[in-house]
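Changelog note: in this version the structure field was regenerated for every chain. One regenerated record is shown below for reference.
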Amino acid sequence: MKTKHSPILLFAAVFLALFPMISFSEIVRIDHIQGYTHNGEKLITFNSLTFDSNSGRILADNTDQKVDRLIDGNNQILISGLHDAHGHVMGYGLSQTQVQLQGLEDFNKVQEAIKKGLNNHQSDDWLLGRGWNQALWPEKDFPTKQDLDELSIEQPPIWLTRIDGHAGWGNSAALKAAGITREMAKDNDLILKDKQGEPTGVLIDNAMDLMTRHIPSPSQQSQQQALKKAFADLAAVGLTYVHDAGISTDNHAMYRKLAETGHMPIRIYAMLASQDPDFEATLKKGLVNIANRYQMRSVKMMVDGALGSYGALLHEPYSDKPETHGAYVQDLETLKNKLKPTVAAGFQAAIHAIGDRGNTEVLNLLAEPTAFSDKLRHRIEHAQIMRPADIKRLSDNDIIASMQPTHATSDKNMAEDRIGPDRMAGAYAWHTALDNKVHLAFGSDFPVELINPFYGLHAAVTRQDRNNQPKGGWYKDEALSIEEAFKAFTIGAAYAAHDEHNNGSLKPGKYADFIIIDQNIFTIDPKDIWKTQVLETWVNGQRIYQHKE
């Protein structure tokens, strides 16, 4: 975009150099744009945007208003900054230094990637990785410790998290380091065992804690670098606002410092992990809002695990594993004990529920009068497999459905195997939710899925993966229009963060959070939405990312 400066800016620059503590308002207007925002009711178009770059607030367009900086938009596409209503920022940043197994459909390639990681791993420290998914492999069997042991003679402990984060795969050295023996595994159904009763190396949900408690925590410096990397990558794909689903009190302290010192380029809405040992003490300190850049006013809880690892709680047994109904991560008594102080402190509850039984039980809990869900905007994270009658209960009880469109396109190869065709009537049911007036907030669950929100927009509209499969879309009746999906990634997510008065759409008084993209997602063939390239990202009236050719 081309910029023109007024003559007073030279004086202002000199004055600021002499008196750096004094800030000036600079009125900026971007003209000649194809602008789009959603106001919660409908899609709004506009051709110019005016804002104060000091306060970061959007101003009413007024042709008589003095403008300090005029930017020619060159007819580019400008849209509201996109939100991700469910991600894991620290987890994503740390994962970028680990072995990446996401999307590998050939088990030989999985082993090759791990072996490459071992060759580059010049220490006795644990080798970590994530992203494996046995549902992609032809045999669809869980891997074993032997598959890792055979890669080299001398190995450090290896621990590889499944794509959904609800299962882990370790080698013999890892099992030994964690003290996981045949005797320990005997009565624990979440430790997978072979026919002889030996642990196979795969642990599900709560059993993973037996392993992870022995893995050294990343250093403070590594965590800081992880956040820096994550912020840069998120801005580059057009995310201006992220809901961080389940942070520790240490992560909370780091976020506070970053926001207070002006080193948080995007906005973060954090959910405190209810498993954190300092959970209640942190709640008692009250809601946190630092310059509307960092908020912490939500608590993340979890009733069950994930569908792919047979951890999602179902009313009826799994269709392809009839001996199980899934398992609790936090049982109902635990959830009640966590919900009570959450509500007392005025915090929103955001409860992970994937299976239909898990969703029913969370709905029952949040529908109780003591939950005050209409005021606190409680959320179900994922709301993935639901009984159709329960979908309407979301709306009846003012409970937000925080959903991830790319989960549908990632799970399409195994979901029907897990639950059978009859239960698919309430699975990944975005359109049914809208028909029942459920409030939707969309995200990705990165690093479970890729961070790019245009992949989510594409999946929501087409019900296809990025190879445009299956033809016609997977359960196409649940697809959304691009306007509906865009709403869920913007103003819908802002509402879920209690922040729709400041963010989520581009209107006077709100913050100037927007992105410039290379194609018009509202007019192109939907199959190409995922290809959208972000050219610029602006937060608070300041450009924080520009694409380099």
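Spot check on this record: The first helix runs from residue 8 to 18. Confidence is low (pLDDT under 50) at residues 5-23.
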